């Protein structure tokens, strides 16, 4: 009896992956409040959780800066080469594409707007400018399966909605917010800190510079995916 073929599903980070730079760090650096460098370092080194780190960074900024912060974050982001082609490839091959981002709605949605990704395929954090300081809100918390419990936007909770027995889970990412997801994925495309982490943990990964590299690799792996599909 033939089993249903596994469907490919792709989880793609935003900051430093879809965009060339880390938008959160770029924003904080631009407005340069006291104490931000140590918070970034502590988050990268996993001394504090991503949720605590990002929440604390934005709390350094007064909410009255809202317009400047939003304007700066959108004006200064550069979309990585080949992103449109990757989306076209996913549509053509019926690969589900999800943006799983530790970024914030006020820059994630506007920057992705031109690409026509449905909003329910974009997971990110929110921001509340109604108080004295900028407060980050966390609409996608960790589930019981998450070893961290304080991701902020829990990528593995999203991935677990796509069970391994039915899906081939592919992750694209670059940093600390992608470490746990890389352990769950069938295939990892990595840059920067994620590459170092994959090496350290002995996780198979492909390094990429642009999304053209990712498309090329997916195309090369396609026959293997189809072969596995036929055999299962």
TrEMBL record:
Look up the EC number in the record and give it: 3.1.3.87
Signal peptide as annotated in the record: none
Q: Which Gene Ontology terms cover its molecular function?
A: 2-hydroxy-3-keto-5-methylthiopentenyl-1-phosphate phosphatase activity; L-phosphoserine phosphatase activity; magnesium ion binding
> Which Gene3D superfamilies does the record cross-reference, listed alphabetically?
3.90.1470.20, HAD superfamily/HAD-like (3.40.50.1000)
Q: Does the keyword Transcription apply?
A: no
Which SUPFAM superfamilies does UniProt cross-reference here? HAD-like
What processes in GO biological process is this protein linked to? Answer: L-methionine salvage from methylthioadenosine; L-serine biosynthetic process
Biological pathway: Amino-acid biosynthesis; L-methionine biosynthesis via salvage pathway; L-methionine from S-methyl-5-thio-alpha-D-ribose 1-phosphate: step 4/6
Quote the Pfam families the UniProt record gives: HAD
Tell me the keywords, alphabetical order: Amino-acid biosynthesis, Hydrolase, Methionine biosynthesis
Question: Mind naming one GO cellular-component term on file for this protein?
Answer: cytoplasm
Which reaction does this chain catalyze? 2-hydroxy-5-methylsulfanyl-3-oxopent-1-enyl phosphate + H2O = 1,2-dihydroxy-5-(methylsulfanyl)pent-1-en-3-one + phosphate
- Indicate the family of this protein: Belongs to the HAD-like hydrolase superfamily. SerB family.
Primary role: Dephosphorylates 2-hydroxy-3-keto-5-methylthiopentenyl-1-phosphate (HK-MTPenyl-1-P) yielding 1,2-dihydroxy-3-keto-5-methylthiopentene (DHK-MTPene).
> What is the name attached to this protein's record?
2-hydroxy-3-keto-5-methylthiopentenyl-1-phosphate phosphatase
Which species?
Answer: Paenibacillus pasadenensis
Gene encoding this chain?
A: mtnX
